[in-house]
Amino acid sequence: MSKEYIVAPSLLATDPLNFGRDVKMLERAGAKWFHVDCMDGTFVPNFSFGYSTVSALRKFTDRVLDVHLMIDRPIRYIDEYSKAGADYLTIHVEADTEENTLKALEKIKANGVKCGLSIKPKTPVSAIEKYLPILDLVLVMTVEPGFGGQSFMKDMMPKLNELSKKLSEVNPACHIQVDGGIDVNTFGFCKENGANVFVAGSACLKAEDKKAFIQTIEQ
Ligand code: DX5
Ligand code: ZN
Asked: So what CATH class is 6-218?
């Protein structure tokens, strides 16, 4: 089964004083999804957007809002992010106990939102294996989460490949997303290893021709 290729520009790389302008510019460039990074200063050593931004975006754009929660014990905030209008809510398997991770995923689904689960570079595929059948998206981090503009970790490719194989058996419709250091030179490695959703922050926002950037990766 072949999946659609999608670029999800990361809004972390936008100009905070021209946020709306940048969102509209990315819409005109053909962005179908927006990746919204939410950080709590604890799970990762940085802060970024919260659910008020997701809610403001929901009123401002009809594109898919792909919300990446880099927060500890995300179960505490699932209802707020669901109400804010996220289309996808992705949590980290490292952020809570197994029991709470399952509960959080079930809560996301019960709220009518698509659920995603992410692994940091040092986390193996085996850590998320049991959740695979219920997921709508798996996010394989290709940098340590927390900051934009870091270098792509090519050594994540065997892990991505292992995940793709497992998903093709148990949940072939599940999106496979990569995030961190994705640009015109690195997306190909991810595509070869099964990724179909490409988060791109700095490379997309810095590209002179954003439409061409998106089309190059999505073709
Ligand atoms: C990093 C975030 C990413 C970030 C990617 O923790 O999850 O979404 O915005 O930025 P680039 O594409 O610049 O690596
Ligand atoms: Zn992200």
From this structure: alpha beta
